[in-house]
Amino acid sequence: MQLQLDSNDNIEIIVSVHDDYIDTRKTRLTESFLITPGEIIPQWRPKRSTDIRSADLESLLSTEAEIYLVGTGRDQYFPRALELQSFIRVGKAVDFMNSRAACHTYNLLASEGRKVAAAIIIESE
After folding, report:
1. 5 pLDDT above the threshold of 60
2. Is domain 14-120 in CATH 3.30.460.40, yes or no?
């Protein structure tokens, strides 16, 4: 699935989303990753939505964004409340959606100049 590009070449944008990889302007990612308008952080640990742990979400929170998204692979998945403790503790919200929707939402928010961070799962064995 091709995504519409933003005209601002200074921000990290997702160009296309496929089941086994995601292309940004600069690189092809084949493993789960974090993305902010300023950087891509490769090799985020979870390989499936059911792998998400509190420490994984803490790494997303450490980006100090204002809006947090998690792409949970092909299907939408909500982790247990225990896994959300780091967000609950600091009073921040995080939205969970399938990875395609998270990529699209990330691009939209980043292109608006919003301080957004997304953790995207690319499902693998």
Report:
1. no
2. no
